[in-house]
């Protein structure tokens, strides 16, 4: 009988690594392949960045509380976020969809309104795609293309000892938005007469349903002539992402709990749900902020931008990956981020 | 109550047109957007071609008779075919998959063996992708990137009156392979003790399960310094594709039944199924051959390649789109090709 290994034994990143490890590159134009936010292709000095995301109904989104326009918008944003995470500027986009016959043309119009709104805001062209029926569930596949000046792209694998670890914006909000909407959905499913109570929770709901990509941070780098040493976007929680950077850069790190940026609205929502806001920031996903490392000499530039927080620094690999709590205790950082394959 | 228009009223191409017609392009680098085999992006003189295809289990493939290795191979080929159809050379590829827990690591290894075999044969690099679980069914999204010298890309919309209409290889085989495999599947489902009878039908089964992309034709154009006036790949049947070229080029055409290339194996399989081989070539899909138009002065070059058949020529739009049967009768060409949205 043929061997059978469950995919769950490898996890998403283990699986990708397993499937792609023996693959040799043939084209000189391929600068960065599998294993970063996006791939990089050389085009006569200027570099092209390419990234793709698959979004499946029931896995990545729930149409019960995700309006189609927001879904279209978000489908674009999650890809643009990967392009910015390479320090590149997105320029083009392809969108493929698989739809069942429960969708009408009007509902697809709404979805594309969201796509267009994001393209408009981020100055990106929709250049192609594929449209198909699906037997069940809405399938969305988006590929984003971007450009970056030669050697200005920033990988995950190039952080160095002593570098400051920075994050943009605030963390944990999207996870609390999801927690709230899941609770309201369950209440509604038990008793459809009860209307959802989202009163005063616009912030966390917005963080989940209408994320933005950090174009402003990439523009700030450009204005300041600042090149991060490593960067990626935060889609699976701070813990998971900082470990990616450490693993790929072969370094250790220390993160300080009291430096992690958490919005007041996120904090108070966490308390209502009896959750630790720090845990939400570390392990909750879908914030689409950027995590990046900079040389210590860039400290002055970084603190001039109030949208950036310094949350720790890179250490030797021997010193491990540590989290220092507000009480001063030290813990090993573990990735408990969202795993789409569990 | 909000209006509801069924998607089937528009069809796939109507739907794409409807959803994308109001979209303005922002980036000067976007040369060709939605509406061709692939999009074209300018990269400092050299042009980048990009195309994407979504393949869904139960819609585009049936794992009952599609071995995973072949499926991986074919997922790459259908995209490379679109790149060649722009007269470009494919260079990179992203592959995203959504998988349910019925898949093991071993089964994905098989799928990726097919991906790698195609990448190896066509000299293409796998540079990224996304891996996710799916609730039901296997989801595959492939995006291919290619390159072409400035202004050497070939669109669908540039055929001119008098041009010769050519096709590569032979047509109708993949449709007959599908017909055979569907018949054997139904027999098996009714009585699992009966093993499939594919005796002597390697050719048509191979046409369906292991198509190739016409790299050789693009290389021939390059060697001959021949630039087709219009081109696309044949994925939905000759009728559908010739109408795309005519509609987008705003021209008419005439096709001759006795010029349509059909392999002997296809012809005899058609007779066994009591089907007209010409109808299979006109309306069957998935041959992944190329249809292209050339100027009459390129006639000598074209006939030097035995893999190319001249099947008709382009006429004024007023003369309609005609098919001349072996008996000399003239019919209007109608697209009855495969419509994934019906």
Mean pLDDT of chain A: 90
So what's the CATH class of the largest domain in chain A? Alpha Beta
Shape of chain A: globular
The end-to-end span of chain A amounts to: 25 Å
Give the radius of gyration of chain A: 20 Å
Strand order, biggest sheet of chain A? Answer: 8-10-7-11-9-12-13
Question: Helical element count of chain A?
Answer: 10
Strand content of chain A: 15-25%
- Output the CATH topology of the largest domain in chain A: Phosphoribosyl-aminoimidazole Synthetase, Chain A, domain 2
Give a short account of the largest sheet of chain A.
7 strands, mixed
CATH level-4 homologous superfamily of the largest domain in chain A = PurM-like C-terminal domain
Structural class by secondary-structure content of chain A: alpha+beta
Number of strands of chain A: 13
Biggest interface, and residues per chain? A-B, 84 and 83 residues
Low-confidence stretches of chain A: 337-342
Name the quaternary structure.
Answer: homodimer
Describe the structure.
The structure is a homodimer of 342-residue chains. The first copy, chain A, folds into 2 domains: 7-148, 60s Ribosomal Protein L30, Chain: A (2-Layer Sandwich), CATH 3.30.1330; 164-332, Phosphoribosyl-aminoimidazole Synthetase, Chain A, domain 2, CATH 3.90.650.10. In chain A, 33% of the residues lie in helices and 25% in strands. The first copy, chain A, has 10 helices and 13 strands. In chain A, helix 3 (105-122) links the parallel strand 4 and strand 5. In chain A, helix 2 (68-84) packs parallel to helix 3 (105-122) and helix 4 (173-190) packs across helix 5 (202-209). The longest helix of chain A has 18 residues, at 105-122. Chain A is globular, with a radius of gyration of 20 Å. Mean pLDDT of chain A is 90; it is low at 337-342. At the A-B interface, helix 1, strand 2, strand 3, strand 4 and helix 3 of A face helix 1, strand 2, strand 3, strand 4 and helix 3 of B.
């Amino acid at each position: 009988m043929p061997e059978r290994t469950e995919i769950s034994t490898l996890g998403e990143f283990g699986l990708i690594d397993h499937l792609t490890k023996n693959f040799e590159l043939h084209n000189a134009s391929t600068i960065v392949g599998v294993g970063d936010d996006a791939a990089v292709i050389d085009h006569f000095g200027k570099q092209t960045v390419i990234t793709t995301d698959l979004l499946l109904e029931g896995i990545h989104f729930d149409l019960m509380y995700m309006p189609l326009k927001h879904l279209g918008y978000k489908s674009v944003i999650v890809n643009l976020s990967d392009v910015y995470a390479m320090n590149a500027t997105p320029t083009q986009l392809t969108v493929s969809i698989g739809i069942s016959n429960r969708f009408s043309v009007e509902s697809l119009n709404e979805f594309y309104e969201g796509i267009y709104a994001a393209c408009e805001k981020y100055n990106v062209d929709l250049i192609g795609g594929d449209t198909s029926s699906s037997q069940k569930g809405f399938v969305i596949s988006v590929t984003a293309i971007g450009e970056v000046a030669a050697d200005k792209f920033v990988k995950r694998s190039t952080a160095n000892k002593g570098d400051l670890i920075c994050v943009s914006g605030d963390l944990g909000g999207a996870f609390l938005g999801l927690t709230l909407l899941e609770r309201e959905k369950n209440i509604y499913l038990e008793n459809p007469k009860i209307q959802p109570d989202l009163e005063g929770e616009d912030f966390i709901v917005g963080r989940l349903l209408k994320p933005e990509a950090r174009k402003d941070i990439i523009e700030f780098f450009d204005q300041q002539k600042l090149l991060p040493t490593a960067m990626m976007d935060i889609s699976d929680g701070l813990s998971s992402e900082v470990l990616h950077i450490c693993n790929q850069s072969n370094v250790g790190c220390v993160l300080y709990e009291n430096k992690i940026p958490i919005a007041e609205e996120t904090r108070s929502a966490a308390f209502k749900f009896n959750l630790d806001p720090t845990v939400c920031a570390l392990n909750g996903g879908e914030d689409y902020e950027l995590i990046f490392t900079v040389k210590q000499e860039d400290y002055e530039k970084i603190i001039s931008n109030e949208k950036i927080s310094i949350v720790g620094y890179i250490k030797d690999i021997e010193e491990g990956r540590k989290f220092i709590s507000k009480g001063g205790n030290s813990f090993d950082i573990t990735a408990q981020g969202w795993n789409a394959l569990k």
